[in-house]
């Protein structure tokens, strides 16, 4: 298992480490593309980006160089990694191919916050009701401390524009008068249709004329 149980990020927040393993990376360097194995990679589910520690690379005798263009990671005369600068970070020219080895299976994350994100930032109460009303099978939705956190994307998504200005009520039609007019018009139409139908005497006279 992982010898490290927690890490502290730049803003001082403690994040739990849930696993450790090796990952295969496809990297672009002086030789073109090359597959490299990153060893003892920590699995931290709450991190939103994959990070590589420059100090860890230096401890392993790599040379890490930064400038305004980007960065390079080399060992001796061989450059293994290159990166470009953007948004205040240095992004390496590589991609994860697949995990080669995992020390142990990661824990299932069934927190309400995780389901909140999967359901497109749905409100917490309906999500928790799935568990309460036994509408889900095979999993357990757990409420944690982050359930009451306010996400910026949630606030923006639920924001609405200002309501329409209220006009003078005198300018609006009286719905009761409209309904009364419609009923009167309908009754008049029914009376007209009834008058168009032939009477019983008229029908008998037409039948007698046809028989003679």
UniProtKB/TrEMBL annotation:
Domain Retrovirus-related Pol polyprotein from transposon TNT 1-94-like beta-barrel: 6-62
Keyword Ubl conjugation attached: no
GO biological process, one term: actin filament organization
Compositionally biased residues, Basic and acidic residues: 181-193
Entries under CDD domains matching the protein: WH2_BetaT
Region annotated Disordered, chain positions: 181-212
Protein location: Cytoplasm, Cytoskeleton
UniProt-recorded Gene Ontology molecular function terms: actin monomer binding
Transmembrane segments annotated in the record for this chain: none
InterPro entries (alphabetical): Beta-thymosin, Beta-thymosin_sf, GAG-pre-integrase_dom, PolX-like_BBD
Stretches assigned to the GAG-pre-integrase domain: 88-158
GO cellular component assignments: cytoplasm; cytoskeleton
Primary site of residence: cytoplasm
Domain of life of the source: Eukaryota
Protein keywords: Actin-binding, Cytoplasm, Cytoskeleton
Function: Plays an important role in the organization of the cytoskeleton. Binds to and sequesters actin monomers (G actin) and therefore inhibits actin polymerization.
Family, similarity comment: Belongs to the thymosin beta family.
Name used for this protein in its record: GAG-pre-integrase domain-containing protein
């Amino acid at each position: 298992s992982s010898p490290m149980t927690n890490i502290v990020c730049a803003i001082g927040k403690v994040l739990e480490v849930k696993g450790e393993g090796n990952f295969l990376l496809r990297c672009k360097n002086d030789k073109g593309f090359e597959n490299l194995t990153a060893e003892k990679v920590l699995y931290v589910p709450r991190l939103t980006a994959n990070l590589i520690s420059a100090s860890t690379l230096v401890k392993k005798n790599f040379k890490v160089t930064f400038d305004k263009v980007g960065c390079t990671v080399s060992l001796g005369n061989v450059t293994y990694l290159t990166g470009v600068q953007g948004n205040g970070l240095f992004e390496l020219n590589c991609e994860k191919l697949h995990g080669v080895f995992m020390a142990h299976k990661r824990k299932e994350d069934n927190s309400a916050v995780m389901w909140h994100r999967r359901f497109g930032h749905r409100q917490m109460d309906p999500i928790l009701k799935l568990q309460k009303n036994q509408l889900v099978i095979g999993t357990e939705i757990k409420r944690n401390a982050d359930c009451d956190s306010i996400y910026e994307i949630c606030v923006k998504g639920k924001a609405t524009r200002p309501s329409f200005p209220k006009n003078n009520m005198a300018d609006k039609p009286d719905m009761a008068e409209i309904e009364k007019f419609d009923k009167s018009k309908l009754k008049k139409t029914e009376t007209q249709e009834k008058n168009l139908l032939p009477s019983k005497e008229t029908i008998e006279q037409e039948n007698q004329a046809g028989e003679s």
